[in-house]
Amino acid sequence: MHTITAGLVALSVVSLTAAQQVEWGQCGGINWTGPTTCVAGTVCTVLNPWYYQCLPGSTTPPPPPSTTSKPPTTTSKPPTTTSAPPPPPTTSSTAPPPPSGTGFVKTSGQKFMLNGAEYTVAGTNAYWLAQNSNADIDTAFADMAAAGLTTVRTWGFNDVTSPLTYGAYYQLWSNGVATFNTGAFGISRFDAVVASAKAHGIRLIVSLTNNWSDYGGMDVYVAQLNPGGTHDTFYTNPKTIAAFQNYIKNFVGRYANEPTIFGWELANEPRCGGSNGSPSAACDVAGSTINTWAKTISAYIKSIDPNHLVGLGDEGWFQLASPPTYPYQANVGIDFTKNLAISTLDFGTFHSYPESWGQGNNETLWGVDWITAHAAQQKAQNKPVLMEEFGVTVNQPSTYTLWWNTVLSSGLAGDLIWQAGSQLSTGPSPNDGYAVYPTGPVYPIMKSMASMLKARG
Ligand SMILES: *[C@@H]1O[C@H](CO)[C@@H](O)[C@H](O)[C@H]1NC(C)=O
Ligand SMILES: *[C@@H]1O[C@H](CO)[C@@H](O)[C@H](O)[C@H]1NC(C)=O
Ligand SMILES: *[C@@H]1O[C@H](CO)[C@@H](O)[C@H](O)[C@H]1NC(C)=O
């Protein structure tokens, strides 16, 4: 994400009338107007004031996954339940352990796996982590861990043309030469992010450059190595490709054996178009230019680091012959279906910002279809797909509830909200209109959904 989008029309009475709600479907909560009874074999369960859900079970509702389990009767024995024998010492498939500090996350079909157990991606974005003090980084991860999140996506880039004396930057550019920053405000700040994530049992998805000019990104490579070139020449110019690979060698190589890294991502939201105007005619807006680049760069990452997963980081545009709406048509240079087939990309990514994409009059239901369409590709190509950014600026609790519900019911591998925030020593973490904080209404829903996603498997 990049810009603050002004709130558009607050709208849409979502009317979902059906006699009985399906398993995993919503069955109540503030402002809910849909069905309030559940199909046989499921029970309408109050998870929080915003969200009641049809969970598997019969007459006795199962406890919500994280909060109300019965306390142990003595302090000398492990917790037991009254209705079942004590659990075996190893964990069951319905109650995965918190992420272990060892082992690399892998894929198996449509799932992520860690040390033989399923790994759930219930996550958030926090691009700003490395720019903060160690204490504030710890505060942020502590909040995320308390919400049950497993995975955090953050920026592994900041390209500058003059040195900073605060925060973190990793490449200093001068006259077409990039120097990897091993100084005080350099890669050691990212080491601190990794250390804190590890201490909190969280894994990181790390983007390696930016389509946008925030924190430098592709446009700095182009300005330094192909002056006057359009944004898209980042994907094709031999010098920019070599320079990006050199950066990958330094950054990715440093953490190649670090299990806290969930995976690398080629770029945040790659597109043909750039800040310096339209793309060149050479950039294929239907997707082949970025597809070729993604093959080259993902294969290069695998050659430096065979341990970690690799994703693209795109917004997930489709290229349909009869596009129902703008994000399904040839436009920005991304073909989600074609990119998902790249053998050196381990998982698919997409974002959902209907208000920014001309769907602000129908953002909630448009997003449901967008999630469903990507889940269908996950199944078709048997490769996990993440909704790794999403946001609306109006009706967040009800829209996110429906979207998360769609993630659960569609089988989509996981999601990462844009963006869970924290109260830092410097004030609230950055808010571009989408931030949700621990005291706000979205946070408890996010926490419930993390539990349910883990329970779904
Ligand atoms: C790509 O980046 C440029 C700025 O460098 C911006 O104009 C364009 O809209 C961006 N698109 C996306 C979605 O990242
Ligand atoms: C809103 O989006 C849904 C899902 O794509 C679609 O079925 C519906 O027709 C749309 N409604 C409007 C008013 O555009
Ligand atoms: C719930 O409904 C009330 C009254 O109609 C409205 O003011 C409020 O914004 C709604 N909340 C959400 C999250 O949609």
TrEMBL record:
Signal sequence region: 1-19
Biased composition (Pro residues): 84-100
Location relative to the cell: Secreted
CBM1 domain mapped to chain residues: 19-55
Any one Gene Ontology molecular-function term assigned to this protein's record: mannan endo-1,4-beta-mannosidase activity
Region (Disordered): 59-107
Keyword annotations from UniProtKB, A to Z: Glycosidase, Hydrolase, Secreted, Signal
GO biological processes: mannan catabolic process
Reaction catalyzed: Random hydrolysis of (1->4)-beta-D-mannosidic linkages in mannans, galactomannans and glucomannans
Example of a GO cellular component annotation carried by this entry: extracellular region
Low complexity bias locations: 67-83
Keyword Protein biosynthesis among record annotations: no
Keyword Hydrolase: yes
Family, as annotated: Belongs to the glycosyl hydrolase 5 (cellulase A) family.
Protein name: mannan endo-1,4-beta-mannosidase
UniProt organism field: Rickenella mellea
